Prior knowledge:
This protein is of the alpha+beta class.
Amino acid sequence: xxxxxxxxxxxxxxxxxxxxxxxKQEFGVLWDFDVKAKxxxxxxxxxxxxxxxxxxxxxIAKQVLSETLLAGYFLPCKMVVxxxxxxxxxxxxxxxxxxxxxxxxxxxxxxxxxxxxxxAAMEEAINREx
Length: 130
């Protein structure tokens, strides 16, 4: 259902590195939602960092939406970077699993490409030497 890796970097550094790696895969971060900051602001609080990134490649979004508007339920792609105990994790729901719910072959094929590229971006972000 998901792909998750452990990052050797802080949450902030992982987010920054991930944004750079995603650009190489022709994806951009549309939105970086700091869940902890928002919950703290609302007086609810959260004991660990948790960021949600909304990620998109406009050409791919147009392609899949031209095939089936139902794909819009899963756009933009979501990635998360969070702290769990003493470890930083980076992950995403698998686009292939989500698009299987639509039962459209073109959408499934696009999802395979997206999943591969986004996974490559995550791996590069956590393994790349500076």
